[in-house]
Design a protein that fits this description.
The complex is a heterotrimer of chains A (134), B (467) and C (415). Helices cover 24% and strands 38% of the residues of chain A. Chain A has 134 residues and is α+β, with helices and mostly antiparallel strands. Chain A starts with a helix and ends with a strand. Chain B is globular. With 467 residues, chain B is an alpha+beta fold. In chain B, strands 4-3-2-8-16-17 form a six-stranded mixed β-sheet, with no helix packed on it. Chain B has a five-stranded antiparallel β-sheet with strand order 10-9-21-20-19. Chain B has a domain of 291 residues: DD-peptidase/beta-lactamase superfamily (Beta-lactamase). In chain B, a hairpin with a 2-residue loop joins strand 19 and strand 20. Chain C is mainly alpha-helical. Chain C has one domain. In chain C, helix 1 runs antiparallel to helix 2, helix 6 packs parallel to helix 8 and helix 7 packs parallel to helix 15. Chain C starts with a helix and ends with a helix. Classes of the chains: A alpha+beta (134), B alpha+beta (467), C mainly alpha (415). Chains A and B meet through loops of A and helix 6 of B.
Chain lengths: 134, 467, 415
């Protein structure tokens, strides 16, 4: 009787060993892909010129190629701004850009909290911050 | 610090190779591990697993139990009711000493491993009952086996009796034998015994056939032109390239044809015939009779030997081979197959020991059906040889095999052994027109075939035909 | 929920489920149903969870997942040990608890190392002291004299010396990569080897040697040294073979174990039978026969795992160990402070080599040595020291992270 039980459950045990392994590997792959450890896709998005971009735990915006979101515009600095998640909130930060970063029309000096629907202006480009309320 | 980083990456590769080698080795092990597992008697797990299965019985063709499981203090042990008579056939299955015979080669069937019914399996596991193995039914006739065993008496050797029309082995005796029920007390003595009682001489013993091989040489001869009318002269000996091979006691037979030569077993005739046939043809004929070939059987059989062409460097070897001496070797089972081919109009049937396997619900798991193994000679040649063999028994060297009221066909053989007494051979079948049983008997160092081996064959055939 | 968090939950859940299923089986395994396994399962799951969230809260930087991986291995080991001998398992639980606490402690206390680094020579003193103590007061257990027994409590100083050794070598290599420095490293290695060989702990000797070799290679990139190192290895291997009978026995058993099955190759043969018997998914927990394998709860626990968790289970565990090495080496790679990079490298090399050595020996890839499988084998000192080792690695991993967190803390203070 125990025999049958053990024989059936062995598949469960091996399966969950692989579930564990699979998740560890997933973490490693994500770490390799992300810029920083723990930089993951969040539930917030940025809309720019009708295209929706994913926002990560730490997302950089700018003209240079290695930015997470590349913005091609002469008024955009190479590393212009960053959006990051802290706890449950999202912050917009200006990375000492030449022409400044604007939130809903106002230029920001210190990092500010972003709310769903906020409009960010970087150089001449407008981006809309979208946050899914879950 | 680029260098350090690069080096660490190299070390990372180093470690990945290490771990990869473990995984590869494990994989290789997993694929190849089976042989180590199953072969080793040191693996207690297999014996443990077997304890949870009731091993099936081995029975003769009429249902007489030769081996079965009995339970002593909850432990399963084997009881060999067939005793010394069938020790080599049943073999034994023992945790300490290993397995042999049917116990070994039909281990899977006896444990029911090959036809496990998953439903039954689970039901048994649930209720805690043991799984039941299958019963193996042999073609052996136990009563005939006993007669053969007694007939062989105190001699060393083997007796094989089979049904030439089907290939069923009716009896297979090897002596010296042993009592498989008493292995614990006699094992050491058995292993040290110079008579090798553990060896199944019927299939693992190779002997020079001597004159019984003349049926093969004769077959080759008869398939030549005008064979029946051809004559050779026998001077009592033949000199081949400086070597003198004589007839038995140097008897001069004068001018004779194949018929007479077979009846009196004239060496000179067959040597000259063999030289005329030539090494290639004789070898081909032997191989048609399954020499140098693996004989398919339920137990492993040592291949009989007809020397290969390169060894037959000179005519001396050919001459010796023609009369079944020299490098020619044959197992008793094979010789029985050879004579059964002649009995069966030139068709050699595949020999088999296991007739069917039945599960514990008495359903047949599988059955053996007679199969043709080879057709070494034409039926015409077979008929001719058969006639000659009848004469051998009637008035030739095989008179001791005569059975009242039955026409017996046979051939005697006295195989010379260097430094020892000759092996006594007899092969034959009866009744000659519709043969029901064919036998081969070899008495190790028994002397003259017609005197020592023929009566044993008679006893076996007589017993069988009486029923 | 973030991707991150989802994976964390999945990892924790797998640990819970494996624990519950396995310990449930162990609870009903023997006739009077024992509730102990259930307590262990829940206790373990609970403890791991608490510790993990503590780490996330107080030490959120660096590699936080390493703890989960170690817990996973510890759990598998605990399951197997309980299955083999429930009393040993209870002891193992104690060691695990101590280990995890010391894990946290090491992460915290290792920061103070920086302050005392200038007195690094004390490490050498400690190493020699510990070796001497073992030599003079040590007792022999399982064929090697590297245990100190005080009453009921036995302790393997060599496990502690491993850590000190790595630290010492790291200090030397950071300061001096010239021939002089290398000679110093070689010197310390030889001293350690000397003591270890005296204790007949040839397995550890091999680990010390190889680790030193790896560290020298990484620090100097000097292929000549590396080559010499390898030659030295072959030479000492050969010497070991000639001088020590039991090395001869082990090599013979490795080459052809079927020659003397009931005698010299008994262990490895039984191990092979167990591994072969498991098939793909294993026999199922409790259905194998680990009792046929000698020293099954220490050296041969991997064979028992192969038998009951199968080829697939065993391979997964090998991969997990590799991933630990990978993550450790990554920590070493990313760390900009040389000495800490070396320490991480050395600790991981010791660890990885040990794992390779024992698993390799048990499956007959290489001859057997007397080392155990960290986190899985039964053994207090090894468990505790291994946790401390990874506590140190965790600390070092924090040094390598870009200062996102610093930034956030700043912002938090400002806003």
């Amino acid at each position: 009787m125990y025999e049958i039980l053990a024989q059936i459950l062995r598949f469960v045990l091996v399966a969950f060993i692989y579930v564990f392994l699979y998740n560890i590997v997933k973490i490693m792959i994500l770490e390799l892909r992300g810029n920083i450890g723990n930089s993951e896709i969040t539930n917030a998005k940025l809309e720019m010129q009708n295209i929706i971009y994913n926002l990560y735990t730490y997302t950089t915006l700018g003209r240079a190629e290695d930015n997470d979101i590349r913005i091609e515009n002469q008024y955009v600095s190479s590393k212009h701004a960053a959006i990051y998640k802290r706890g449950r909130k999202f912050f917009l930060e200006d990375l000492k850009s030449t022409n400044g970063t604007f939130l809903n029309g106002k230029r920001i000096k210190k990092p500010v909290v972003l709310r769903n629907g906020d409009v960010i202006k970087v150089g001449e480009v407008e981006l809309k911050f979208l946050l899914d309320k879950r | 610090m680029g260098k350090r980083e690069r080096n660490i990456q190299i070390i990372l590769i180093f470690f990945s190779l290490l771990f990869l080698s473990i995984i590869i080795y494990l994989t290789y092990f997993e694929i190849n591990e089976k042989d180590k597992l199953l072969a080793s008697p040191y693996n207690k797990r297999l014996w443990e697993e077997e304890q949870s299965i009731i091993r099936g019985s081995i029975l003769d063709r009429n249902g007489i139990v030769l081996a079965k499981s009995s339970f002593y203090n909850g432990k399963q042990t084997r009881l060999y009711e067939g005793g010394v008579f069938t020790a080599h056939i049943t073999g034994f299955s023992n945790e300490k000493y290993g397995r042999s015979g049917i116990e070994a080669y039909y281990n899977g069937e006896l444990l029911g491993l090959n036809n496990r019914n998953p439903i039954d399996y689970f039901i048994n596991k649930f209720s805690g009952r043991k799984q039941k193995g299958n019963d193996v039914y042999l073609t052996i006739d136990y009563n005939l086996q006993k007669v053969a065993y007694y007939a062989l008496g105190n001699n060393k050797g083997a007796v094989v009796a089979l049904n030439p029309q089907t290939g069923e082995i009716l009896a297979m005796v090897s002596k010296p034998s042993f009592d498989p029920n008493r292995l614990d007390s006699i094992w050491d003595a058995l292993v040290k015994d110079e008579g090798s009682p553990l060896v199944n001489r019927a299939v693992q013993g190779l002997y020079p056939p001597g004159s019984v091989f003349k049926v093969v040489t004769g077959s080759a001869f008869l398939e030549g032109r005008d064979a029946l009318s051809r004559k050779y002269t026998c001077e009592g000996y033949v000199e081949v390239e400086g070597r003198k091979i004589s007839d038995f006691e140097g008897v001069k037979h004068g001018s004779l044809d194949i018929r007479k030569a077979m009846v009196v077993s004239c060496n000179s005739f067959f040597i000259q015939a063999g030289l005329d046939i030539g090494m290639d043809r004789l070898k081909r004929f032997s191989e048609a009779y399954f020499f140098n070939r693996e004989i398919p059987f339920d137990l492993p059989v040592k291949n009989s030997v007809f020397p290969t062409a390169s060894l037959l460097k000179n005519n001396i070897e050919l001459a010796e081979a023609s009369i079944g001496q020299g490098k020619v070797l044959v197992s008793p089972l094979h010789m029985a197959m050879v004579v059964s081919a002649i009995a069966n109009d030139g068709v050699m049937m595949k020999p088999f020991l296991v007739s069917k396997v039945m599960n514990y619900k008495n359903q047949i798991v599988w059955e053996t059906y007679p199969q043709v193994l080879a057709e070494p000679v034409s039926s015409e040649t077979a008929r001719l040889i058969k006639e000659m063999m009848v004469e051998v028994v009637e008035k030739g060297t095989g008179k001791e095999a005569k059975i009242y009221g039955v026409k017996v066909a046979g051939k005697t053989g006295t195989a010379e052994v260097e430094g020892n007494k000759s092996h006594a051979w007899f092969i034959g079948f009866a009744p000659s027109d519709k043969p029901k049983i064919a036998v081969a008997v070899v008495v190790e160092n028994g002397g003259i075939g017609g005197i020592k081996a023929a009566p044993i064959a008679r006893a076996v055939m007589e017993e069988y035909l009486r029923r | 929920m973030d991707y991150d968090e989802r994976i964390e939950i999945a990892l924790l859940n797998s640990i819970y489920i494996i624990g519950v299923v396995a310990f449930f089986l162990l609870a009903v395994y023997k006739s009077p149903i024992s509730l102990n396994p259930i307590y262990i399962a829940f206790g373990f799951g609970f403890t791991v969870t608490i510790f993990y969230y503590l780490i996330k809260k107080f030490f959120p930087k660096g590699d936080i997942y390493i703890f989960l991986i170690l817990s996973f291995l510890t759990e598998i080991g605990l399951i197997m040990i309980y299955r083999i001998n429930s009393e040993l398992a209870l002891k193992q639980v104690e060691w695990i608890a101590i280990g995890m606490i010391l894990f946290m402690a090491s992460i915290f206390f290792f920061r103070f190392y920086e302050g005392i680094r200038k007195h690094y020579q004390v490490l050498l003193v400690l190493i020699i002291l510990l070796f001497l103590v073992t030599l003079l007061f040590g007792t022999e257990k399982f064929g090697s004299k590297n245990w100190i027994v005080v009453g009921n409590f036995s302790f393997q100083p060599s496990e502690l010396i491993k850590i000190l050794f790595v630290m010492m070598v790291s200090e030397i290599l950071t300061r001096d990569k010239t021939k002089k420095g290398i000679l110093k490293v070689v010197g310390i290695t030889l001293i350690s080897l000397f003591f270890l060989v005296l204790q007949k702990d040839l397995g550890s000797a091999f680990l010390f040697y190889m680790t030193a070799l790896i560290m020298i290679f990484v620090a100097t990139s000097n292929l000549l040294y590396t080559m010499f190192g390898f030659l030295g290895l072959i030479f000492s291997g050969y010497m070991g073979f000639i001088l020590f009978d039991h090395v001869k026995v082990r090599v013979a058993a490795w080459l052809n174990p079927w020659l003397d099955v009931p005698g010299r190759s008994y262990q490895i043969v039984q191990s092979l039978f167990a591994i072969g018997y498991g098939g793909f998914f294993g026999t199922g927990l409790g259905l194998g026969h680990p009792e046929y394998i000698p020293a099954v709860y220490t050296d041969f626990i991997f064979s028992a795992i192969c038998e009951e968790f199968g080829f697939l289970g065993a391979v997964a565990i090998v991969i997990v160990y590799f991933i630990i090495c990978y993550r450790g080496l990554r920590v070493s790679l990313k760390c900009r402070e040389e000495v800490y990079s070396y320490i991480a490298l050395g600790l991981i090399s010791m660890f990885g080599l040990q794992v390779f050595t024992i698993i390799g020996g048990v499956i007959k890839l290489i001859p057997l040595t007397g080392v155990t499988l960290p986190f899985v084998s039964y053994g207090g000192t090894s468990m505790v020291m291994s946790f401390i080792t990874f506590g140190i690695i965790k600390y070092i991993s924090e040094l390598g992270v870009e200062d996102l967190w610093e930034k956030e803390n700043e912002i938090y203070k400002l806003s």
